[in-house]
Design brief:
It is built from seven helices and nine strands; from the N terminus they run βαβαβαβαββααβββα. By secondary structure, the chain is of the alpha/beta class. The longest helix is centred in the middle third of the chain and has 16 residues, at 76-91.
Length: 237
């Protein structure tokens, strides 16, 4: 894809090649940008190698400046900084010709507008570096490990705001990263997607589904404060 500003625009993110979400996304992008956009989609579910290869081709053919649009709904600033760093390493002295931005594949009109606004794009030079050590670089106290799925399908079912609520409820209950409490981690797809959002508890090995705020609050109170299973929220085998 080409614009007035960029010789090439590439799109990277999960669920772009196969499945119902890919079908919907590809149709919406085609309606907005034309059929040629399909050659500029890179499904990161299988890794980034294909994207890196295309970036190398753009560099060798002088198809610059280049914009890479990150469509990962879980990306955020850390993901963009990582992407910028990788592109900087690939481009070397020509890193000033590479740019990135974060977009939403579900809002294609807003995405098209964002692509036309270079002032909202980030360059790939002077990328913030990770410090060599962090004050938080230690294992937090906990009794339970809780893994909450933030994969594509659970995210579409509202997993991100439920993740934030889970942290708030655990903190309010005095169970967030305490000796008798919980250390929580977001994950990619855990399965089974159709019953999600999916939450698993270790070392007990229980699998729960939390579909709304009421179920999050119930799980925190009954499972981690009263310390008893919540069979109504247990996932079916």
């Amino acid at each position: 894809m080409k614009t007035e500003t960029y010789a090439r625009v590439l799109f990277a993110g999960p669920d772009l090649d196969h499945g119902s979400l890919a079908e919907l996304t590809r149709r919406q992008l085609t309606e907005q940008f034309g059929a040629t956009v399909l050659g500029d989609l890179f499904d990161t579910d299988v890794g980034y190698d294909a994207l890196w290869e295309q970036v190398r081709d753009c560099l060798s053919s002088e198809a610059l400046p280049l914009l890479v649009v990150d469509l990962d709904p879980l990306g955020g600033s850390p993901q963009l900084d990582w992407l910028r760093g990788e592109l900087q390493a690939l481009a070397g002295e020509r890193a000033d010709r590479l740019f990135v931005c974060a977009g939403n594949a579900e809002e294609v009109a807003a995405l098209a507008e964002l692509i036309q606004q270079p002032d909202k794009h980030l360059g790939c030079v002077d990328v913030p570096q990770l410090p060599e050590s962090h004050s938080w670089s230690c294992i937090p106290p906990h009794r339970y490990r809780v893994l909450l799925c933030n994969g594509p399908r659970c995210t579409r079912r509202g997993a991100l705001p439920l993740w934030k609520l889970l942290r708030e409820e655990l903190k309010a209950a005095g169970r967030l990263e305490t000796e008798d409490g919980v250390h929580i981690t977001r994950t990619q797809c855990q399965f089974p997607c159709d019953q999600g959002p999916t939450l698993s508890v270790y070392p007990s090995g229980e699998w729960y589904r939390i579909r709304d705020a009421a179920e999050v609050k119930r799980l925190v109170q009954e499972r981690f404060v009263e310390e008893r299973a919540v069979p109504e929220l247990i996932m079916r085998a």
